Amino acid sequence: MRKFLKKIYYSTEIGKSIIDPFLILRNKIIPQEILLKIRFKRMLGYPLNLKEPKTFNEKIQWLKLHDRSSLHIKCADKYAVRKYVKEKIGEKYLIPLILKTTNVEDISPEKIPEYPVIIKTNHDSGGVSIIKNKNLINWSELRIKFQKKLNNSYGEVKGEWQYKNITPCIIIEKLLLNKQGQIPSDYKLHCFNGRLVFTDIHFERFTNHKRNLYDKDWNLINCRWVYDNGPNIPKPAVYEEMKTIAEQFAKDFIYVRVDLYVIENNIFFGELTFHAGSGNEKFIPQIWDSKFGNMLQLPNLD
Q1: Cβ(244)–Cβ(29) under 8 Å?
Q2: Closest CA to 279 of 22, 19, 41
Q3: For the segment 96-147, what is each residue's pLDDT rounded down to a tens digit?
Q4: Collapsed DSSP state (helix, strand, coil) of residue 123
Q5: Is the pLDDT assigned to residue 286 strictly greater than 90?
Q6: Beta-carbon contacts of residue 207 (< 8 Å; ≥ 6 apart)
Q7: Contact 167, 79 (CB under 8 A)
Q8: C-alpha atoms less than 13 angstroms from C-alpha of 81 in its C-beta half-sphere
Q9: Beta strand ranges found along the chain (DSSP E)
Q10: In 77-121, which residue ranges form alpha helices assigned H by DSSP?
Q11: How many CB atoms lie under 10 A from the CB of residue 256?
């Protein structure tokens, strides 16, 4: 039954609209710490220790409960973070913004340029829409989809509190494409206590999704994290600049994942994430959950 509900939840808009109210009600009734422990054990297979967290995933759960600030909210907001990025590293790293709105009627062919764009909301994860040819779009269906997304409270479901504190809006950006007309690889730089520790790369995301992990010196890590490994990826020519950018953001946080794209050696900012995989993604072999956990130092609350 759980597998069936999960399938309709993630594969259909109707499933989300039916199940989300129950999840929100559940989260209001049951204490957050208990919900985290239930989900953690089900997803990872070992009990969550919040008193003495040791693994990477345990520490991500701890951060959900204890590491909270207004800056987390601002940086999780895919629109508001643009100002922070501009001040921190410069406007040249921002993906061109076409439109920001709270009115789905603004999603119309008249307001979409002739080149490819991506549409998303600022307060949740996933569920983007890519438009490469606006003449092939069902605009009514697209507006209905984004109205539902505007009404959705993403942060209530997985305990990622920062998202539920964001005022929802829709943003339309230029779609980044490489010379081959493909969406570029997604470099996710994981920084612990101000320093880059590892990078995970997603590629062939919309065809045959693969993921590789690399240490700070760009050595391939023998680890599978949800997705199968792909071929070894050469170190980007602008890798040192990417590290500098990531660690500039990392100065403000205990843990942050900095997502970057590279097009012809030009770096573009993607987003900042504070709870990678919501702290519920298995490492294979599992020893990497502990190894990365040992590298992430949490503050003493005593």
Answers
A1: no
A2: 41
A3: 999 999 999 999 999 999 999 999 999 987 779 999 999 999 999 999 999 9
A4: coil
A5: yes
A6: none
A7: no
A8: 23
A9: 97-101, 117-121, 129-131, 170-174, 186-192, 195-203, 210-215, 224-225, 255-263, 266-273, 283-284
A10: 81-88
A11: 22
Beta bridge partners of 171: 100, 120
Q: How far apart are CA 281 and CA 55, in angstroms?
A: 12
Q: Which residue has the tokens 């410069």?
A: 90
Most confident range (mean pLDDT) of 15-19, 24-28, 169-173 is: 169-173
**pLDDT tier, 4 (very low <50, low <70, confident <90, very high otherwise):** low
Single-letter code of the amino acid located at 38: I
Q: Is the peptide bond preceding residue 113 cis, with omega within 30 degrees of 0?
A: no
Cβ(210)–Cβ(202) below 8 Å: yes
Q: Which two tokens stand for residue 25?
A: 């009600």
Sequence spans of domains, the chain: 1-30, 95-175
Report which residue type is found at 250. A
Report d(CA 228, CA 284) in Å as an integer. 10
CA distance 48 to 43: 11
- pTM score, two decimals? 0.90
What burial class does residue 74 get, using C-beta atoms within 10 Å of its C-beta: 0-12 exposed, 13-18 middle, 19+ buried? middle
- To the nearest 10 degrees (0 to 180), the angle between helices 13-29 and 139-151 is 0
Separation of alpha carbons 16 and 124, rounded Å: 13
Query: Tens digits of per-residue pLDDT, 63-103?
Result: 999 999 999 999 999 999 999 999 999 999 999 999 999 99
* Residue with token string 């929802």: 168
- 3-state DSSP helix/strand/coil % of the chain, to nearest 5: 40, 20, 40
